[in-house]
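Study this fold:
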Amino acid sequence: MSSRELTDILIQHFDRQRAMSVEQALSEALQLGGVAKAKAEATACDEGANVLREIDRRRPEELPFRFGNSDPQRLIGKERIAKRDTRKTVTAKRVWATAKPLLNHLTSISPKDFEIVCAACLTLAGGKKTHALCTGDEGGIDFYGRLPVRGPDTAVSSGLVYTTILPKALLVLGQAKCLACDARIGRPEIQKFKGQIDDCIKKYEGNKRPPSHRVPESFYDRGEPCLGLFVTTASFAETAEGATASSGVHLVDGTRLAQFLVYHRVGVELEVTDARFSHEAFSVWLNDKRTQVR
């Protein structure tokens, strides 16, 4: 097996509440996958260094472990509680494992409901006046809103001096793509989205009769800064991430989306010593958001 395949096996079977060396973790993971103990131990010894290099290429939020501070070959499960952990960190570790079942559930909801989820996430991230279009004919824009930035100091009289150099808010135009978890979005999709943002804004400039299924013309302020937000349950290819450099488009893949939601306790039921994903709790939350962002 390649180092990538071995790393996938290690990640799949790693016990998030334990701490162990890379070789031990790989050996145990292979044995759980049906490999004989002697062969698993030999493979772990031979391929441990290659697996470490492969792990370094992965995003930390996708891993069920972190590296030890003093020993870079020691893997510490992300659910393992440490003395220095704050109460928020402990809660985050408890809900971390619910991200995967939540993500799997997101892939099963309707495209319109996924747009509602994305608009609600923008609200959770601090957005204001967020809306999901849910029309199926919106020119590439599925949800929108504004993200406030630090405004002027209200304790100082307006017009006396400048107390901020920032705009009041960023216009956010978003696209929601509900796809299979193992799907990958490439550069063409991102470039298309960037073009749709430009088209959406330009068609309002001087257009007395804008398209009916787009962001309302009254929502725009001429010349305001805009942030594109591409949210998906899938992942992005490296070419897609490269296409966003200096483009004003931010990418949110399935892992980030699910972990963000469970951090905010969406679809999570906390028990005495554990947490689990609840379809019922998620449905209640989604039904509430349907009335708030439509």
